[in-house]
Design a protein that fits this description.
The chain is about 5% helix and about 50% strand. With about 500 residues, it is mainly beta. The protein starts with a helix and ends with a strand.
């Protein structure tokens, strides 16, 4: 009798989640112990950049890194499926800390996915495994907890002969209490949220050798506008959200017209071609922050990349799987003397007049790591106190390669950058409309930097893995540093 009562629930559970033993093909557990050493007080650039917050402590430390993943079924194409992930890192050294790198649950219904929690995200068209970092969200900081609805894979529209395909996302995130410069020039902390969306299209049938890609992403920090603007604020909550989503400027007789919150994103294009033995992906991201791109005033800035993928990976002693070359340029910002004037002035990438720490989360930049805060930059280099990101005018060359050497899988990264601070520490100063404010805190002259990273992984017996990492910084932007790490992990 009891079995008959619970039978409907068993049937529903079985339909949605599948049999328990089916988890064996989709569930992965990894436990690793890492010992690391870095130059005291310094962690090399590529050991701390684009790591989703998974960083070692400086000097000598030991880390316990554990993860559990349940992915969608690879063998059954069901209408409904689910997944979840959790990854954490415990660091023990001169201090003790724990970081939650990932923690989310997800549900797939047809081509749609609903995800809630913290996840490892990159936003923008680029080679996600070797890139120096997308402009909007590069995986440099821990993920902001959010609820998201998305189409993750390009969905082909069959009624158009599979010529067009689309994907995108729409999400709401919780940033927490962060420091804000109020309209009356005072400072306080306000509860802040994230709005994020993207839409990307692909032109070209799946079987074609070439395809074109294009789209945009849009992120906004916002929240507690009534408290921020004061008694002259006139919008309802839903009207405010409409202004945030659309980027429509808001203003009154006593409030200067501007977008609500801090908006940032990129407009991206890409070209893909499949040769017989090599796949090519070429892409470019156009940056937008406070409005110069609308006036086509910062078109010189952008992230440009070419990625080559080897289609015929062999068992030879040496084999390359992927090679990447990128050029990151953010010097222009519509702030040069010859730049066309814009109402919002120079872009001052990642900095914000409203949010004290700009486009960052947990004191770490969310975008490309070449744009840096004072945390790691040499103290003798000048900085405008109004800028949280004190070096956002950068020209950087970045190379990456991954492949195999005998029984080792390797990743190599090397970057050379020329750094010019911000317009606040340039000879021409910051701009607002046609007004130019000359620098008051010194000149940040060209400063060169080289950073490199090499990682080797080898499979041992009984599903154990060995990973060895080495990285170093050499130049005048960061203090010279060296980092070494060895990790032994066991996968289940």
């Amino acid at each position: 009798m009891c079995y008959k009562r619970i039978l409907p629930f068993v049937v529903v559970f079985h339909f949605i989640f599948g049999k328990v033993n089916s988890l064996q093909d989709t569930t992965f557990i990894n436990i690793g112990v890492m010992g690391s050493y870095t130059t005291p007080g310094k962690v090399p650039f590529w050991m701390r950049s684009n790591q989703y917050g998974s960083l070692p402590l400086d000097n000598l430390s030991v880390s316990l890194i554990s993860s559990l993943y349940k992915d969608y079924s690879h063998t059954k194409n069901t209408l409904i499926d689910w997944g979840a992930a959790v990854e954490g890192r415990l660091n023990v050294g001169k201090k003790l800390n724990f970081n939650l790198i990932e923690g989310y649950g997800k549900l797939r219904i047809g081509v749609f996915e609903i995800r809630a929690g913290r996840s490892k995200d990159i936003m923008g068209l680029c080679d996600t495994s070797l890139t120096s970092g997308a402009f909007a969200v590069s995986g440099n900081a821990p993920g902001i907890p959010k609820v998201e609805v998305s189409i993750l894979q390009y969905y082909t529209l069959p009624f158009l002969g599979k010529l067009f395909a689309f994907k995108g996302n729409y999400s709401h995130g919780w940033i927490g209490e962060i420091k804000v410069n109020m309209m009356d020039n005072s400072k306080t902390t306000l509860k802040t949220y994230l709005h994020q969306k993207s839409l990307y299209g692909r032109f070209g049938k799946p079987e074609w050798k070439w395809k074109l890609y294009g789209g945009f992403n849009h992120q906004v920090f916002w929240g507690n506008e009534k408290q921020y603007y004061g008694s002259n604020y006139t919008l309802s909550d839903w009207e405010c959200y409409y202004y945030i989503v659309t980027g429509k400027p808001y203003g009154t007789d006593s409030i200067p017209s501007s977008k609500i919150g801090n908006h940032i994103g990129s407009i991206d294009i890409a070209y893909e071609y499949n040769f017989k033995n090599v796949g090519l992906l070429a892409y470019h991201q156009f940056f937008y922050d406070v409005g110069a791109l609308y006036h086509l005033a910062n078109l010189r800035d952008g992230l440009t990349g070419i990625s080559l993928v080897n289609k015929h990976v062999s068992d030879r002693a040496f084999c390359w799987n992927k090679i990447l070359a990128e050029f990151f340029y953010s010097i222009n910002q519509a702030g040069e003397l010859w730049s066309p004037p814009t109402p919002s002035g120079d872009e001052n990438y990642y900095n914000s007049d409203q949010y004290v720490q700009g486009w960052s989360y947990n004191e770490t930049g969310l975008g490309n790591p070449f744009v840096g805060t004072r945390t790691y930059i040499k103290e003798d280099l000048p900085a405008d106190p109004g800028d949280y990101f004190i070096n956002n005018r950068v020209a950087a060359f970045h190379l990456g390669c991954e492949g195999s050497l005998y029984e080792w899988k390797y990743i190599v990264k090397a970057s050379y950058s020329m750094n010019y601070g911000t317009f606040g520490t340039s000879e021409v100063g910051h701009t607002l409309g046609k007004i130019r404010y000359l620098p008051m805190y010194g000149i940040f002259n060209r400063t060169d930097q080289f950073s490199s990273y090499i990682e080797g992984k080898k499979e041992l017996k009984n599903k154990f893995n060995l990973c060895i990492i080495a990285a170093f910084d050499l130049g005048n932007l960061y203090y010279n540093s060296l980092g070494l790490a060895v990790m032994v992990s066991r996968s289940f």
